[in-house]
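User: I'm putting together notes for a lab meeting next week and I want to include a structural view of one of the chains we've been expressing. I don't have a solved structure, so I'd like a prediction I can at least talk through. The sequence is below, exactly as it appears in our construct file.
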Amino acid sequence: MISIKNLSVHQGDFVLGNVSFDVPEGQYGILMGHTGCGKTTILEAVCGLRPVAGGTILLDGFDVTRSKPALRGIGYVPQDAALFSTMTVRAHLAFALKIRKWSRDQINVRVKELADLLNITHLLDRRPKGLSGGEQQRVSLGRALAFRPRVLCLDEPLSALDDQTRRQMYTLLKQAQKHEHVTVLHVTHSLEEASHLGDIIFRVENGKVRQVPRDEFENFHPIRKPNYA
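Assistant: Thanks for the context. Below is the predicted structure for the 229-residue chain, given as structure tokens.
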């Protein structure tokens, strides 16, 4: 579960104040809003990448407001994938596990599991150069999920993809969420992404976060969600 209580973040003249919302355990939360509204700022605060001026961030009931990013147990997928050019796909998937001192056998099993889940087994010995945008985002997602985080945060991960690849990623993201039993907070400005992926949808408006009821959202943007079971 992700629980944000009265969060305040200051960035120069930009101020977000008294932001509160909850993403229930195992749900896929969407955080929407126009460019510059502060949605990425909120995500970065949850991940520990941006200091907060006040309020509380609870993850699975633990107060992580002042915790270092590495201690929050969050898998993070940035907008640009941010892959290491000299590392193979296999090394990316193993990266967080080596840091956490997993055994070689444990790492090999987990890398295979992720590669099968994300359909990137054929890419394991490749480096990022030459991978398509969708392939890079699959690798970035695998790296974020590798150590079995309870929370996954994604910052506009599909914004640079073509329509066909984006639709493929909808299915992949929901399958990964269910397989890994992870609670998700996904930042986007796309109504289509929100409709296809979101179990619960929030909109940042005038420095506040408002939950958008499903019936209200569907009336505004009626897209039929596929069955991801």
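A couple of points you could mention at the meeting. The mean pLDDT is 92. The two ends are 21 Å apart (CA to CA).

User: Perfect, that's what I needed.
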